[in-house]
Amino acid sequence: MNPQVRRLVLDFGPLIIFGAVFFGWGIFAATAAIIPAVLIALAIGYGLEKKLSPMPIFTAAVVVILGGLTLYLKNDAFIKMKPTVVYGFFSAILLGGLAFNSLYIKYAFAIAFELDEEGWRKLTVRWGLFFLGLAFLNEAVWRNFSTGVWIYAKIGMIILTFLFAIAQAPLLMKHQVPNAGDNAQE
């Protein structure tokens, strides 16, 4: 299996399970399903790649903690806060790193492409602000609408993330380091 496709399956598989279980049995059953699903995805990812990336580890920890609180306290607010915590954390890491002249986005994307410094900075600002926007959107939806609406909004946020990533293509092409792959062969 292609490594990028495998990563997508491991990252989004637990979310698909969460959604499917939600529509059949509700939020608490979906929460009970996503906790082992995210841990299994983490274990499979480690077994196949022999490494753990910080982003999936953090996301799994948040799912286990907030999902556990949701089930233990019988309060779905905790699992609904999970996207806010994750998106807010990613935004803080990216924008906070930028404030200290660190481009942490390179660690996530350097395998896929190589950009000049200006490109990495612009990409960091864009993703940092995008994640911040998603955090605020999640807060607004879960606090003001039903759980069903929140689930549909969460699906919409995933679609928005894919569309946002695709919309970065012109920036990536403009700031791609020419012949970056050729230098490694010489």
- Give the low-confidence spans: none
Oligomer: single chain
Instruction: Give the N-to-C terminal Cα separation.
Output: 29 Å
User: What's the alpha carbon Rg, rounded to whole Å?
Assistant: 18 Å
Overall number of structural domains? 2
Number of strand elements: 0
Helix/strand order, N-terminal first: HHHHHHHHH
Secondary structure class reads mainly alpha
Give an overview in words.
With 186 residues, the protein is an all-alpha fold. The chain folds into two domains: 1-75; 79-177. It is 84% helix and 0% strand. It is built from nine helices and no strands. It has helices at 3-25, 27-49, 54-73, 77-99, 105-109, 117-144, 147-167, 169-175, 180-185. It is globular. The model has no long low-confidence stretch (mean pLDDT 90).
